[in-house]
Amino acid sequence: MIISTLFFVTIFTFLLAWCTRSQPRPPLPPGPKPLPYVGSFITMIQNKPAFRWIHRMMDEMDTKILCIRLGNVHVISVSDPKIACEFLKEKDEIFSSRPDFMSSYLTSDGYLTTVLVPSSDHWKNMRKILAVKILSSTRHKWLKSKRDEEADNLLRYIYDRCEINFTVTGGIMNVRTIVQQHSSNVTRKIIFGSRYLGKGSVDGGPGEEEIEHVESLLIILSYVYSFCVTDYFPFLRWITDLDGHEKIMRNAIRTARKHQDRLIDERIQQWKDEWAMAEMMNQPRIFDRAIHELDSVIGKEKLVQESDLPKLNYIKACVKEAFRLHPSAAFNLPHVAAVDTTVGGYFIPKGSHVLLSRIGLGRNPEVWDDPLTFEPERHIDGDNEVVLTDYNLQMLSFSCGRRGCPGVLFGSTMTVMLLARLVQGFTWELPPNEPLVDLKENLRNVFVSGDLISGAR
Ligand code: HEM
């Protein structure tokens, strides 16, 4: 009996080993050959900013999925919608965590916010509270009057600058300041019940405190998940600050916290309207079509209201096109693999950081015709309502799955309303001697490189 059991166990073990051997592990996605221990870290530092280096490599290697080893972490960059869906839809459960990074730890005050916290029961509870208590459609309706107040303030501020203070301002505005300040005004209004952190300024615009606050939030946003050395060599964390990221983050966080508590930095987005305005000014036919839509849907006598937004398909298509072509960051927030798995036929080791490329998806020539041209019409499909989400991940606006953005309704309403009011309320012109807006991206990030200075009437 013992001998026959041993015999069967041996045969079974042998068969198991044979089967495993006959199914070799799939390869890692293509990528540069890593050095022992440091991986490709040195090359990455020599080629900063990392996101441009990664995209260059994807082009050179002609691949839509790339694997780079940094320290002992596999960083996987993806610009193919099918593979992206496999990560965030079919295998969503495996990829619903976030990495533990210095920047995310400091920004979220030890992971007290939903966006950055690694997967845990705490994260699940926070998401539930957000969905039910803060970002529900009932709460959205309840907060309408506060958003309306800010939409009116926006017009009043631009009007005052252009008409009443014309002698001082020459009617010239920085569209970036308007867009950034408006989104934070609304957020502050909703969270604190006040648009000002301090006294504000006499013309109704941002005061010193608001400018300082938004600037520090934008620094935080551009340094969260920005390939900091100690994130890939965690034993160095809190001991050294080799690339200076920690000092920059700590200073920006200190400044932001001076004016607020951590609730607000949960999500202050650079709304996409600055890029939309810049592209529309360069192509007057797009501006004209947007104005025509506003005139025919709303008329010239009335200001656009939130209830009109579902009918403004062209304005929404302009916003969506700005999301596609000019995302606010090169990559989506990282997702971490909880176990070893296979995606797109490649081996994805446990602990890999998956970065869906917003630039790569939105500008993928196999998906989008003439991808570098701003063309809102591509999102219009007969009379179907244009929505800003894209759950097929052909571009990345609000993402999807367990980590998908719970603020879709709030974010869409704010972004579309802001653009509609800017287009409807004023005639926008480029300053004299500037025939076109310079649409170059900043080398270090994907923001408009210069200020979008414009005259409003
Ligand atoms: C135009 C505006 C917005 C855009 C484009 C946007 C987009 C995104 C994206 C791409 C993600 C990451 C999804 C992923 O990891 O796959 C995200 C996450 C998130 N967003 Fe938004 N968002 C916007 C506005 C908002 C607003 C207004 C709020 C709330 C007030 C919000 C709350 C969140 C939260 C809490 C998460 C983290 C979800 C999690 O990790 O579980 N977002 N958003």
From TrEMBL:
Cofactor(s) essential for the protein: heme
GO MF annotation list: heme binding; iron ion binding; monooxygenase activity; oxidoreductase activity, acting on paired donors, with incorporation or reduction of molecular oxygen
Top-level taxon: Eukaryota
Gene3D superfamilies membership: Cytochrome P450
InterPro entries reported in the protein's UniProt record: Cyt_P450 (IPR001128), Cyt_P450_CS (IPR017972), Cyt_P450_E_grp-I (IPR002401), Cyt_P450_sf (IPR036396)
Pfam families: p450 (PF00067)
Keywords in alphabetical order: Heme, Iron, Metal-binding, Monooxygenase, Oxidoreductase, Signal
Signal sequence annotation: 1-22
Protein name according to UniProt: Cytochrome P450
The species this protein was found in: Cynara cardunculus var. scolymus (Globe artichoke)
Lineage of origin: Eukaryota, Viridiplantae, Streptophyta, Embryophyta, Tracheophyta
